[in-house]
Design goal:
Helices cover 26% and strands 23% of the residues. The chain contains seven helices and 17 strands. The strands form four sheets. Strands 1, 2, 3, 4, 5, 6 and 17 form a seven-stranded mixed sheet that branches. A five-stranded parallel sheet has the order 8-15-9-10-11, with helices on one face. Strands 12-13-14 form a three-stranded antiparallel sheet, with no helix packed on it. The longest helix has 30 residues. The protein starts with 5 loop residues before the first strand and ends with a helix.
Length: 336
């Protein structure tokens, strides 16, 4: 355990966690970013050939320019950029260290990780939402042929692939596997159409492939059962079984609510399980524990992105500094 407690411990080494570290550096706070995986772990686990919806300048943090060779930056460019940001700001970060427990201890919090224990005055939780997939909860979902994460198309060459979902991830996966030699690609969509929010430069492509039948589709349908070599679907025409080798369930992801609950964070009664926080400071209902980034939206994971939640870092650190000044003033007055 460090001899001197930290001013701030940041849980999560994604872009927003890094932005929080930058603001802490500017404010001359003692801090540490703790990341359970690799640097910007969620971005690393995105599909290999993914292209961002945002332009590069909207992904910038800390005043470090993000120069992309494309109209929209790619995953490799983003990984290179955030490595450069970390080095440019000499951010204090520890990787492959998972936070297991947060416990109140007098005026501090005791944070126990997989490696050691820290004392800190304040905590920022910036853990995103990419760790826990939304499950189908059907028989056969645990078969090796079912994937909730997608890296690249090569394993599916010559195979019959079912893609479940209607948003950007599902559309990208369907188009890429189709163009990289899958024997057959079938999209299974719960509603009657692809989502209107699909990237505007991709939407006409998928619509045309579906219309011409190059990519097969079942709309207003859901999976009832997954077998070794088949899928059983509920369609508007009734139950239907199709041949299948692999299932790519691009059904979205959710925050780790259990961790937030253990910390003591409360949730609203809305359908999105939005965690409670002050919209001006992003302090949760637990004193000196703040939320930053996409986790602020609960299940509404499309509410916050890098580009519109970068400001969280500045507002949070400003509040921490204000509290530190107030505490120092009170202490000084008492000592007189």
């Amino acid at each position: 355990m460090p001899q001197t407690p930290l001013d701030l411990l940041i849980i999560g080494g994604g872009p927003i966690g890094l932005a929080c570290g930058i603001e802490a550096t500017k404010a001359k706070l003692s801090y540490l970013i703790v990341e359970k995986g690799v640097l910007v772990n969620s971005l690393y686990n995105y599909p290999t050939n993914m292209t961002f919806f945002s332009t590069s300048e909207k992904l910038e943090i800390g005043g470090v320019p993000f120069i992309s060779h494309n109209p929209k930056p790619t995953r490799p460019e983003a990984l290179e950029y955030y490595r450069r940001v970390t080095e440019s700001w000499n951010l204090k970060i520890t990787l492959y260290e998972k936070v297991n427990k947060v416990k109140s201890q007098d005026i501090y919090y005791q944070v126990t990780t997989s490696k050691q224990t820290y004392l800190t005055k304040a905590i920022i939780i910036a853990t995103g939402f990419y760790d826990l997939p939304n499950l189908l909860n059907v028989k056969g979902e645990n078969l090796p042929k079912v994937f909730h994460y997608y890296k690249d198309s090569h394993p599916f060459y010559g195979q019959k692939v079912a893609v479940i979902g209607a948003a950007n991830s599902a559309v990208d996966v369907a188009l890429e596997t189709y163009r990289k030699g899958a024997a057959e690609v079938t999209m299974i969509v719960w509603k009657d159409t692809i989502r209107p929010s699909v990237k505007y430069w991709v939407k006409p492509d998928i619509e045309n492939r579906l219309k011409e039948g190059s990519i097969k589709s079942f709309f207003n349908s859901k999976v009832l059962e997954i077998g070794e070599k088949h899928l059983t679907l509920q369609t508007p025409e009734g139950a239907k079984t199709i041949e299948n080798d692999f299932v790519l369930a691009m059904t979205g992801y959710r925050p780790d609510f259990s961790f937030l609950e253990k910390v003591g964070i409360e949730f609203g009664e809305d359908e999105y399980r939005t965690p409670k926080y002050d919209p001006e400071t992003y302090e949760s209902n637990v004193p000196n524990i703040y939320l930053a980034g996409v986790i602020c939206g609960g299940l509404k994971t499309n509410a916050w992105f890098i580009e519109n939640s970068r400001i969280h870092a500045k507002l949070i650190v400003e509040d921490i500094v204000r509290k530190n000044v107030e505490t120092a003033t009170i202490t000084e007055n008492h000592s007189k």
